[in-house]
Structure prediction request, 653 residues.
Amino acid sequence: MPTSVKKTRQTNKPRKTIPSNPFANLTWADLEDWAGSRIVSRGKNYQREGAVRELALTPEGSLVAWVKGARRYATQVQMGKSGRLGCECTCPFEGNCKHAVAVILEYLAFQKAGKAVPLVDEEDERLDILDDWVKENDFLEMEQEEEKKLKNNAAARNKEIENYLNGKSKDDLVKLVGDLRNRFPEISIALSDEIQLKAGRTKPLIDRIKREIREISSEPGWRNHWNDDGYTPDYSVIQKNLETLLAGGEADQVLSLGKALMKAGTQQVGMSHDDGETAMEIGSCLPVIINALGQSSMEPVDKLSWALETVLQDEYSLFEDLTEYLHRKHPAPAWNILADRLLERLRRFKPAPERSYEFSWKFDRDQLSNWIIHALERAGRKAEIIPLCEAEAGITGSHERLIRLLIDDGHLPKAEQWVFLGIKNLGTNLPGVTASLRKQLLEIRKREKDWSAVAALQVYEFVAGPSESTFSAAEKVLEKIKFWSTVRPRLLDYLETGALPWENSKWPLPPTKLDPPERGQHIRFPRFWELMDVAIYEKKPDQVIRWYDQNAKQAHGGYGGNEDRVAEAVKKDYPDRSVAIWKKIAEGEIAQVKSRAYQAAAVYLKKIARLLKERKRGKEWESYLNKLRQNHARKSSLIGILDTLEGKPILKT
Prediction:
């Protein structure tokens, strides 16, 4: 079976004979194993649309062609003696690409039509282009290796340069610098900046940085993913100039410029449409700004305030390095003053707005109080944290944070009180938060080692959201306390009838003190698919089939991809049922009459083929495949996919 090989060109001297067809036995499965089904599908489209031009053969049997994509690419494909496919293509894709697949399919189309493929001319420009491409890629690998070596030898190289310069006379050094200035204009600029800074004339450099910030931030970044075209602003010049200004002792000026940069950069990121490249460019300047913050003339508390204000106003998480700065070691007195400032700010926090803006208001207030907690911790004022969180829980509903602190401090009874208060206050408004509070209650019970209460909560979670994971979690703890055999039938009875397990008179577990889980209007019993999940988990194929059939009788419908899970679970004991399920899914996809749906159908058709062949029923598979061909003969895209499933060489499909 052909497998991928590294892209390397064969360099044997050309022979003057037309080679035999090395791709004669290539199957669709081979091609998909080599390039992947998506790439093969795209390659088919390229070949069908006539993108392959001037196909030719090398004397060694390789294929060479132009392929028209976003640009025109030179492409070469070869089949090694061991049946290993390899390719080179000047497109930017790293790996076996759609252009190479299109070339192979074009060649096989020539073979089917009985058309001769000409021998490539020794002077064909494509051979030179591909040679250059291989050399360039080899050069890049060598360059990366060399760069690694250079980094490892940086200290030795710097020492060598230092010794070289020390051996020069003053006149020689002046001449050397003059020569370098002529060759590299940026050296002249750097020297001029240093002279200006030494003389205390900072205005020219500051004005230049301001101008660069305005110019570079004026155009948003963008990226066209279809042709990889786009624009990313380059902030490296600003970064270097800020470094120069900082080296000149102008930390306060760097901070002032940093504020301007952050404001302009935030606006630019808001307008940009790329994958975060613009944000990364802006972020590259942040280390200089943070160094300047450390060296600035501000008082320690003002440095913390500067960093925190930037973080609080950061809309796009551009300046997260400043969060790391705020987690560094700073003087406790500075944290003490900052904590007082922030507490006063919290007291003056604007009142809650109308309901439509309430979420944003709570988020901003919680973010501020989180930093107050951090400041109080660093100031050694931990006793104030829990009272603050208790007050804020009543205002913003931040119960989880408070409960987390209480649990960590060992105040389990108080944490439990807040869990129930939080659940009561939230009601059914935020089910996700309520579920998190129940998890914290579960953690409290585990810390108390009250395993019966833990088991009761795990049963509650199963009722709230029946699934394999909640069933197995309940099983684990109930086995621990020897109640699994008693409780398991109650869980299954709940799935069949909806009867709550704990309402049974012989229920062995303590009450959870929680209200029964809400039941949506769409919930109906028996919950067939959840019963199937449990049966699959317990490896009981008879039960899986039982619930599957009852579900079908009551016309409750399927649940998407999990029907495939049923087929997988019963294929050993009920192969015909698995085949029937996969046929149903595949034919449902085919009925959508969409290329993507045909690809989805192929996944299940492959499963049918594999299972029938394992059972020595290959003819049954062939018959079904032929039936699909006849029923959908006019769907050329589907027929092409069915060809890939046949297992025959592409030439014979």
User: Anything to note?
Assistant: The mean pLDDT is 89. Strands lie at 52-57, 63-68, 72-79, 85-89, 222-224, 229-231.
